[in-house]
Amino acid sequence: MKIIVLMVVLFLKTLGVSAQIKGVVKDSLSGQPISYVNIWVENENIATTTEEDGTFSLNVSGNKNLIFSALGYEKKTSKAAQSAEVFLNAKAFDLEEVVISNSIETKRIVIGQTENTIAQAFDNGPRIDVKYFPYNPAYNKTRYLKKVTLSTDSRIEDATIRIRFYSVDANGFPGEEMLKKDLIVTVKNGTKSNKIDLSDYNLVMPKNGLFVGFEKLMIEKNKKERTVTDQNTQTTQILKTYYPFILYNYVERDALFTFSGGKWNKQTNESNGMPEKVKGYEPAINLILSN
């Protein structure tokens, strides 16, 4: 009997028992908590976000790797069991030359509109979906990013979401973030069309295009719970939903990109060794450019 018990214990240790990991993420220099930090379980579609006070909780095995990522900080990987207190190092940014130009805003164009204007909302889960905006020489006359527009569907008031802008790296993937601080957007209850002013960020359309995406913040204020009963077994469970939802268009693209498990994933389609368009959903996001 002792041998059997010992074998069971060893078996459970090998599997790794899932438990609620609680911790806090702080700045390594100031010791201040960092809000809205991405926390991903490596190579898995499980994630969460730190609250405004830097705290987080996540149901995961203690031997799993957690990837911590926040704008303005170096990415860090830590064992879940060792993540009660995590310190992130601030990135060192080179000072950029400030160019003063006359943005007269007499011209505006909307880019990113699709032939399929029918959009639907669904829960994208804990991942980042992006839309690619290719460069066009005609944008030289309207090169400033004036606004970003997106449609949301929310069942709670004042839900928050993070908007992200990425340059294109050498392999065509989303690369460096174009903003130096978080763009957190608050949306109202219901299905809404949102226009977010980007004038203060002085963003210019890059010559090789850019990616624009959104990230759902898995925080308490965005959560809505409901109790569901299985009619066959009469057992109940609590379902958690994080708002807002973003509307998506069904499109054909050369590739679709999603950030999950701590890395970017590229969805493509090939037939007989030849690349073909891939069909799928991308966020219904548009950009307004101005001069």
TrEMBL record:
SUPFAM superfamilies: Carboxypeptidase regulatory domain-like. InterPro entries: CarboxyPept-like_regulatory. It holds the Pfam family CarbopepD_reg_2. This is Carboxypeptidase-like regulatory domain-containing protein. It comes from Flavobacterium buctense.
